[in-house]
Design goal:
CATH architecture of the largest domain in chain A: 2-Layer Sandwich
Number of helices of chain A: 4
CATH class of the largest domain in chain A: Alpha Beta
Radius of gyration of chain B: 24 Å
Oligomer: heterodimer
Strand order of the largest sheet of chain A: 2-3-1-4
Helix content of chain A: 25-40%
Radius of gyration of chain A: 19 Å
Number of strands of chain B: 22
Number of helices of chain B: 22
CATH topology of the largest domain in chain B: Rossmann fold
CATH architecture of the largest domain in chain B: 3-Layer(aba) Sandwich
CATH topology of the largest domain in chain A: Alpha-Beta Plaits
Number of strands of chain A: 8
Number of domains of chain A: 2
Distance between the termini of chain B: 72 Å
Strand content of chain A: 35-45%
Largest interface: A-B, 20 and 19 residues
CATH superfamily of the largest domain in chain B: Thiamin diphosphate (ThDP)-binding fold, Pyr/PP domains
Largest sheet of chain B: 6 strands, parallel
Number of domains of chain B: 3
Largest sheet of chain A: 4 strands, antiparallel
Structural class of chain B: alpha/beta
Chain lengths: ~170, ~575
């Protein structure tokens, strides 16, 4: 099952390495990982998406994360109502005006933006849940050649009052 | 405010932390710290012959005393040589602070001479680590390191100290913090009240309970509470390898060690129990055997200070996070308050069953006219030391035999590498214990494979006059490897035979110690008596034992807890 784990940790050298090391050491899988300082610059917020075989593994993973001395809070997002977003930048080949128009139309439908243009390339920016980005890649791939894709990994937050705070 | 250099701050911080002994080895990156040690009269430093041994000494010093062990080594190989020792301490939850030198900050990342990323290399086997990039950080890092190492589930903490940070020419104001708190780290000590109530109720209604006591009970100093609870409710008690001594080995309610080489009665009691109450044990694979067949009828109750240990291998029906000492005291208080007790009749019936298993006398063994049996050696050791010695061990058959045949009276009396299974642990461990308790008899029970993994420490013993007894069960082989090869590899003894063990008597004499060779059973007791009478000398007793003797009982692979070989030819009904 797919899980999204939010981690609030000290913004200190080595903290990220400890988290990544933990996943490698215990053969937990990481699908994506994003990390950045929060409004409180002494804290970093990390979102990890992972695939686990059972709830016991997930529980152990969360406990192991929490055991790291640098980690303040750990929470699983998919258990409750939440918002998840990923940013993607995608570069496609635009051979002729017909392809360019088709790409523009598809990008509009997905609420993507074209952020860079050359005579033969479009760079599209798209945000959304992973499944939306996957669908966009599949669709655009039918129209044109995809040159490059970069995805940020998932950022997630719980809906409503629930918050992860120091 | 007092002005000190980084190097002086290291030494002063250790002093202010109350540290009296440190173990280490100097080198380029820590010369300034060693110079500060030279000028300190409060800290006694022991120079080892290999850094791994320094960590084992500090580790055993900690196991024997409950204090934090301290190690000081140089960068690069000095630091990496510590890794086995750090991993050993980590697996057994032993508090250590390991200070390692580092190349100057402006060289870090340049592959400078003796540069190793110690923080990175040690990361999987430490509880936490610090790298000090300025001298001012040193006192707080050291304070935090001791706090983290010794609280919660203890463990080793590494502090990396680049050479320029130690510079004796740069002085900074020094103040050692009185206390420290970390917003991201606060171990739970008291048990949840509701869980305590449920635990007591479960314990009182159990008809076939077993109290399963691990090393966590020793670390938490909970032996008094374990004993009180066991006696109050007449519970059968089994100890893990790491828990030996947490409950007295000669107590009538003690049913022996459990697990791979546990007793018949302990393993059968576990398998047939209706309640397993784990106190500071972690359901290790050497205990559970096949987890799918583990204790099919038992409700599992588990206390541990580390939430990750709970339900990791075996699901706990009733988990309690907290210090064993505090949680057991909470349970005892509740029992006292309610005056409730369990049903004596069903407990007596359970004891009748256990005593029937006990009558099997699974640790009985055949003596031989021609060979000394390892069991005889340990029983003789027990007799000669009256059961009062601190016993350290290495890893292998001798370790299991010592665990089975020396009933430890008290906690911190049995010092061995349980989780990591580190050969070479025994001798430096004995030295660490002797430094902590100079007036107590300390013996290292070892094998001819293990002792040669840190034998260079005989030289350290000579330098500091650390008079330990080394009791070598010499079977000229890697006994446990050989046992497995005999049982599971068609008897093919691939590289488990030591073709050239040295003359240990001569070797001991080369280090100005006393060596005694024992070849016959009648020489054994006089040799041990003499070894312990020579209180100010290292005595190396080399006992030639039966090379074919194996360790039994032994659980059958993939079986339940009660599936055991009782001898090479006898197996329990699976």
């Amino acid at each position: 099952m797919r899980s999204i784990i939010s981690v609030l940790l000290e913004n200190e050298p080595g903290a990220l390495a400890r988290v990544v090391g933990l996943f490698a050491q215990r053969s937990y899988n990481i699908e994506s990982l994003t990390v950045s300082p929060t409004n409180d610059l002494t804290l970093s917020r990390m979102t990890i998406t992972t695939e686990v075989d059972c709830s016991a593994t997930l529980e152990q993973m969360m406990k192991q994360l929490h055991k790291l001395v640098d980690v303040l809070r750990v929470s699983e997002l998919t258990e409750g109502s939440h918002v998840e977003r990923e940013l993607m930048l995608l570069k496609v080949r635009t051979l002729n005006s017909e392809v360019r128009e088709e790409i523009k139309r598809t990008a509009d439908i997905y609420r993507g933006q074209i952020v860079d243009i050359t005579p033969s390339l479009y760079t599209i920016q798209l945000t959304g849940a992973c499944s939306k980005l996957d669908a966009f890649i599949a669709t655009i791939g039918e129209t044109s050649e995809i040159v490059e894709v970069v995805r940020s990994g998932v950022c997630g937050i719980a809906r409503g009052e629930k918050a992860l705070r120091g | 405010m007092e002005m000190l250099s980084g190097a002086e701050m290291v030494v002063r911080s250790l002093q202010d932390e109350g540290i009296e002994h440190i173990f280490g080895y100097p080198g380029g990156s820590v010369l300034d710290i060693y110079d500060a040690i030279f000028q300190s009269d409060k800290i006694e430093h022991y120079l080892v012959r290999h850094e791994q041994a320094a960590v084992h000494m500090a580790d055993a010093y900690s196991r024997a005393t409950g204090k934090v062990g301290v190690v000081l080594v140089t960068a690069g190989p000095g630091a990496t040589n510590c890794i086995t020792g750090i991993a050993t301490a980590y697996m057994d939850s032993i508090p250590l602070v390991v200070l390692s030198g580092q190349v100057p900050t402006h060289w870090i990342g340049d592959d400078a001479f003796q540069e190793t990323d110690m923080i990175g290399v040690s990361r999987p086997v430490v509880k936490h680590s610090f790298s000090c990039r300025t001298a001012e950080e040193i006192p707080i890092a050291i304070k935090k390191a001791f706090y983290i190492a010794s609280t919660g589930r203890p463990g080793p903490v590494v502090i990396d100290l680049p050479k320029d940070v130690q510079n004796p020419l740069n002085k900074f104001p020094y103040e050692y913090p009185k206390s420290v708190s970390l917003r991201s780290y606060s171990p739970t000590l008291s048990g949840h009240r509701g869980q305590i109530k449920r635990a007591v109720a479960a314990l009182l209604s159990a008809k076939k309970p077993v109290l399963y006591v691990g090393g966590g009970s020793i670390i938490a100093n909970a032996s008094k509470q374990v004993l009180e609870l066991a006696e109050k409710l007449n519970l059968p008690v089994t100890n893990t390898l790491m828990g030996l001594g947490a409950f007295p080995g000669e107590h009538k309610q003690f049913i022996g060690m459990l697990g791979m080489h546990g007793t018949y009665e302990a393993n059968r009691s576990m398998h047939n129990a209706d309640l397993i109450f784990s106190a500071g044990a972690r359901f290790d694979d050497r205990v559970t055997n096949n987890v799918d067949k583990f204790c099919p009828n038992a409700k599992i109750m588990q206390i541990d200070i580390d939430p990750t240990s709970i339900s990791k291998n075996i699901h706990a029906d009733l988990p309690i996070v907290g210090s064993i000492e505090i949680v057991l005291q909470q349970m005892l208080d509740l029992l006292e308050e309610t005056k409730a007790t369990n049903d004596a009749e069903s407990i007596n019936a359970w004891w009748d069953q256990i005593n029937e298993w006990r009558a099997k006398d699974c640790l009985a063994y055949k003596t031989s006219e021609t060979h000394i049996k390892p069991q005889q050696v340990i029983q003789c050791l027990y007799k000669v030391t009256k059961g009062d010695a601190i016993v350290t061990s290495d890893v292998g058959q001798h370790q299991m035999v010592a665990a089975q045949y020396y009933p430890f009276k008290e906690p911190r009396q049995w010092i061995n590498s349980g989780g990591a299974g580190t050969m070479g642990f025994g001798l430096p461990a004995a030295m660490g214990c002797k430094i902590a308790f100079p007036d107590r008899p300390v013996v290292c029970v070892t094998g001819d494979g293990s002792i040669q993994m840190n034998i260079q420490e005989l030289s350290t013993c000579m330098q500091y006059n650390i008079p330990v007894v080394i009791l070598l069960l010499n079977n000229r082989s890697l006994g446990m490897v050989k046992q497995w090869q005999k049982m599971f590899y068609g008897g093919r003894q691939s590289h488990s035979y030591m073709d050239s063990v040295p003359d240990f008597v001569k070797l001991s004499e080369a280090y100005n110690h006393i060596g005694i060779k024992v070849d016959t059973i009648d020489q054994l007791e006089p040799a041990l008596v003499r070894a312990f009478e020579l209180k100010d000398r290292v005595v190396f007793v080399d006992v030639a034992i039966d090379p074919e003797e194996q360790v039994f009982p032994m659980q059958v692979k993939f079986g339940s807890m009660e599936d055991m070989y009782l001898s090479p030819t006898e197996r329990t009904d699976a």
